[in-house]
Write a structure and sequence with these properties.
Blueprint lengths: L5 H5 L24 H6 L2 H12 L11 E6 L4 E2 L5 E3 L9 H14 L3 E6 L5 H4 L8 H17 L4 E8 L1 H13 L6 E5 L12 H4 L2 H6 L5 H4 L1
Parallel strand pairs: 1-4, 1-5, 5-6
Antiparallel strand pairs: 2-3
Length: 222
């Protein structure tokens, strides 16, 4: 085997990789600032508006009620349903569709939706491995994280939580229940459609044990 020079590994010889764009046109429009806002509001509120505009929200519409949408969405799904990156389970795979629908509805009523995420694990995937030790602990960890996300949007007027399964839903419930001074809505999201000819996610978890006891064949399991 011919040795490969270190320079061939570290240097592609393509000079265009150094032409990295570092600037782009900024958003158009102006923030709805007033002397009172400039002098009396927290500096974080002002900085938050600049980031909202930088992410593409119409600067002229800032100042409306803000609603935070929390979810346990996992994976990266293309608009046509194809997986770009898989989630840990089917329960959280399409939660982002509910988040999008809620965000569009809130925006249609003049509110400004925000969305943050804390994806949940699957104890079915971790069965028989040390990963099982993290399943129940995740509930409290995620509830704490959701509460921190809520407090990280100090200007929120309400919270909507979308979650699925036996770890995501309890963690979301604990987080929302602790928000005593905020209106909160819990949306228990569904899962993917069941296969027309196949087992559901609960039944398929035991295929190893069923095969061991001769209840199914290798072909049926596959």
């Amino acid at each position: 085997m011919t040795p490969i020079a270190l320079s061939a590994i570290l240097d592609s010889g393509d000079e265009s990789i150094y032409n990295v764009p570092t600037k782009a046109p900024g958003p158009q429009g102006a923030l709805p600032l007033t002397p009172e806002i400039m002098l009396q509001r927290p500096s974080g509120d002002l900085f938050g508006w600049t980031m909202d505009a930088a992410m593409g929200w119409d600067p002229g519409k800032l100042g409306s009620k803000e609603v935070l949408i929390l979810s346990t969405h996992g994976g990266l799904r293309a608009p046509d349903g194809r997986p770009i990156a898989l989630g840990l389970h089917t329960g959280h795979w399409e939660v982002n569709l509910l988040v999008e629908a809620a965000a569009r509805e809130l925006a249609s009523h003049g509110a400004i939706p925000f969305a943050t995420y804390c994806s949940d694990p699957c104890d079915g995937r971790t069965m028989g491995t040390p990963g099982m030790f993290d399943s129940l602990a995740f509930r409290n960890d995620a509830a704490s994280l959701f509460r921190r996300q809520i407090r990280s949007l100090p200007t929120r007027s309400g919270v909507l939580g979308v979650a699925t399964c036996d770890k995501g839903v309890p963690s979301m419930m604990m987080a929302l229940a602790s928000m005593h001074d905020l209106p909160c809505i819990l949306v228990p999201g569904g899962v993917m459609l069941l296969a027309e000819d196949g087992w559901n996610a609960a039944e398929v978890q035991s295929i190893g044990a069923q095969y061991l006891h001769g209840q199914i064949t290798l072909e049926e399991a596959a």
